[in-house]
Model the fold of this input.
Amino acid sequence: MCGIIAFAERGSVAPHLIKGLERLEYRGYDSAGLAVMSDSVIRTCKTTKRVAELEAKYNSAPFYGSVGIGHTRWATHGAPTERNAHPHLSEDGHFAVVHNGIIENYEALKAELLNEGHVFKSDTDTETIVHLVQKYYRGNFLKAVLNAAKRLEGTFAAALMCIDEPDTVIAIRNFSPLIIGIGKDKTVASSDISAVAEHTKKAVYLNDGEAAVLRPDSASFYNFNGEPVEKELTVLDVGSGDYGKNGMAHYMLKEIFEQPDAVRRTLGAHIKNGEVAFDFSLFDGNAVRNIKKICFVACGSAYHAGVAAAAVFRALTGIASYAFIASEFRYMEPMTDSSTLVVPISQSGETADTLASLREAKRRGARTVGVVNVVDSLIAKECGDVIYTCAGQETAVATTKGYTTQLAALYMFAIWFGRELGALAAEREAELTKSLTQLPHALEIVLRSDAHAKKHASDLKDASSMFFIGRGLDYAAALEAALKMKEITYIHAESCPAGELKHGTISLVEPGMRVFAFLSQPVTASKTVNNIKEVRARGAYTICCAPQSIAERLTDIDELIVLPDIEPLFFNIIEVVPFQFYAYYTALARGCDIDKPRNLAQSVTVE
Ligand code: F6R
Done:
């Protein structure tokens, strides 16, 4: 969701901006643009199509300069049109801005500026920033930017240029991430570590309320009062990496096949000599014994990992454990105090609602341990302790390896927690840990069986609706399977706890409708079998997914997906894989843009 890239350098900046925008594409966007300081004029190029189109458009009428800013926009205020695409210029063309986040008081600011005679050219909240800078400008660019920044409420990261200081970019930050890279003859600002790491490993993280003044050979830092700030230089621990598709048609397919290795890396980071160990700085065995409640807080697929984790934690620790959708949790009446452990789960480490929930929980005194993929992301940095998932870069918007590595990390955490609490017998702990180490191999087996999904994609592609049902941990799998299907195929796909069907949802079941059922849990499988009978009796076509030991007892179903028998508590991790394939091949058959589904962003940095 929205990405910023900006350079002050000595060479021609536009190719670097375009390359940087390509790197940001995975976040999701609906328009893109760049601005370059060229012969004392700020010149822009924008598109409502892909970055490749932006590049072609720029190449058809190039302009040269060594300082520039670029942006991928995911529309919030104003339609995804060229006039709303960033960068936005001030009325006099003196200043340009790109911005991530939301200016919450933009209506009041815009009214003030309109009243003073400013003329706006877009419907965005962003444009108010550049008008404010123009309003406050008295020959000192930094001062004008800081005066404007102090008027802004909400979340923002922004980069600005001014024609009177043609070798300078100023970057500001409040709540939205912004990283400054300091290279040789070049400084770079970006919302994304990978776009910086490509140019330099020396970086500085801006904090809330800070600004950076970037020139090709210097970077200086200030707070919004204009006082200089000393910043610590960090060495980025990310490779500039191979972000290609590795010969696969889509990033999503590549990432599906990366799951065994990604899960192996995640487990390998914390399982030593057959035992789970974490090197927490705050959350030790004593802290564990004070915990009365555990809240997993996340959005989308990460929330589904939380639903599964809550069930596993209840089983292995006996502590009241719940999963909450972060956008709900952040506004709930006191859900937390010092006896609560809050576990934010986030692949990107940037999701606005998850971050806000974390801050609210901390404000109320909760202990926090995050499960995060992106190293040094905002959520990772603000949690008391972090368990990193080692998924590597996830480029497809629909998460696959991000989700399964979250499950792996959470399973390890549950075993560790149960042991530290004394709730888990040594024998059971050893058995569970061994089962964890077998998960990568089980994933490899499941990945060999995409034939089912390929075969059914041609029938499924014309479906108008389908259902996914299960109980307990199987319901968590149903949630994730339905989300994968709907987000990339645009087919209505609904998950429902199997026992809840007859309380309303079953009225939607029609002859021929596909109902997918999950049956991995020995205690509840026979109950779900009854629900399968109910929908079959109403003409539904049922496709069931079960481990060998349960599958061989099933009768009266239409299709069966048989998976290896593994520890039932950990079954979600393999159970979702066939449905990643179902979603992928159905989307392929429908001709959908699989890696960049409509309206979606990979990283949701606004509320
Ligand atoms: C679905 C998907 C989203 C994310 C959600 C949270 O395929 O990718 O539902 O899981 O937006 O994102 P993170 O984990 O980055 O906080």
